Amino acid sequence: MHDVTLTINGERRTVALDARTTLLDALRDHLGLTGTKKGCDHGQCGACTILVDGRRINACLTLAVMHDGDTVTTVEGLGTPDDLHPMQAAFVAHDGFQCGYCTPGQIMSAVGMVGEVAKGWPSHASASLNGKPELTEAEIAERMSGNLCRCSAYPNIVAAISAAAKDTEASS
After folding, report:
1. Residues 16, 2 contacting (CB under 8 angstroms)
2. Where would you tag: which of 32, 62, 100, 151 has the fewest CB atoms within 10 A of its CB?
3. Is the same domain home to 35 and 66?
4. DSSP 3-state assignment of 80?
């Protein structure tokens, strides 16, 4: 067993874990944060997307001990029912979910993606490698391609991300 200390959603937490425990299993099974979903458990669906030190990752593909000392944000850390994060509010407003299973991963990936765009990181769909990428539908689709929705709510997900990104830019 290894003590792993993480700052999760602003709270410093230490948990004793087997070295083989994935970050996803640590969050869900040891810390009670079940918003992050276990979909495929192979890094193919994106249901387990979280932010680690501000960057999005698939929590099922990494071991918790590798993140000792890191800052983790899960969907529980974005907003509350009374004070939704702008991305959460946009998903509700644009009906960016159907069954809802993939929604936490979609939202976390979208928040991470908007941060990448703000930093000027290009994607394969970016028109230029220089300057801030334009957040077109093609750009969003490329950047969100690691997050699958079995219900095929993609048009609404793209609309929600577009709206939240515009709101974020307008308030900056």
Report:
1. yes
2. 32
3. yes
4. strand
